[in-house]
Amino acid sequence: MASFWFISAPLAGHTDWGGMLKTAQYLQASGHQVLWVSEPPLEGLISAAGVPFAAIAATGWAWLRPPPADLRGMNPLEAMFLRYRRALDSWLSEELIPPAFEAILNLAQSRGVPDLIVTDPFLSAVAFAAEKLDVPIAVAGWVAGQPLHEERLHAVQADLSRLSRERIARLKARFGVRGVNFSEGAAPAVQSPHLHISYFNRAWYQADPEPLPQTQFVGGRVDLPTTPVPQWLAEIPQEAPLALITLGSVFTGDLGFFSWAAQAAARLGMLPIVVLGRNPIAPEKKAELKAALPAGTRLLSWLDYDHVFPRLKVIVHHGGMGTTHRAAVQGIPQVVVPHAADQRAQARRVAQAKVGLNLSAHQVRNGQLLPALRAVTTDERVLANAQRLAAELAALGGKARAAELLTALAERRA
Questions:
Q1: Which residues constitute the domain of residue 117?
Q2: Residues 243 and 196 placed together within one structural domain of the fold
Q3: Fewer CB within 10 Å: N-end or C-end of the chain?
């Protein structure tokens, strides 16, 4: 049997990517040695999932505070550069990566070197440390894209490209590695030369360039619940149409979004379920939100997807990959309002697959949530497309196929 490390940033959403944690559970149930590595805040979540956990002091991921300046008052180019620079700092910080690199090497010294490391797509420290340990990596939830050429970049993007390449060059020199786990081209990123696992299908990326051959599409399947039905859900009549409204765990401060979406769902005869995520908001703000929600709305901090998703009529969300994937495998129509980063790409792909709509913040403020919800829950083509996509994803094998691919790669090393 092979030994696997799964390493993620200390965020609940970074354990998913469509199936990362479920794949770890499947490998463990199959008799392999599995260890989840992250910072202490994730220990409770991973341990509750039945996967052994090892805490390290740092993973190299930066949890960024809100920008100090009002971006709307800045020169547009300066504001764009600040957004891109902050995104770069989150995964390629020259201050945070070295201690994470050392923490991973120290863990290998105390626990032994694994046969394979499965990584969150945004952990540069893992890419450097795995090369130093001579351990192959597999990237969970992210395709290996074609190299991007500099002439296709805007001026601001070209500046960030130069910065990222300079940082990687300095870190390679510092660690004494060649950078084999980074992509070439103008937009370097963590990239395995061996295996990238996407929990969608190729058609999901229909408008994107052909991915590199190490990308494997495994789709996903619905898992039956293994825990009792939550009491609050059991009290809701089975025939009640439910609308889930969430912004994940990061963008919980957008209280207007929650209230507007809940009001729109209630006007269409649905019972809203508003999930704030694990990032708490101030008590007075939560009280303010409660007062703005329609009667009967369930306001929660956390949600058991396995129980709730089979009962949903629609979901309104931010476009996080895990949430988007779960709605896709369940065949639920989606209204996506992206807030940052890859969420915009997920929202675009939801619209391209014709399983939902992609709304901008401007459209939300101008009252488009109500017609959007009405459209995706009544258009027979959208409903049929959602069911067809779910069937296509299930046919690819999901976590079982992902585990098969990872095992084959690990055993080549062993």
A1: 3-220+396-413
A2: no
A3: C
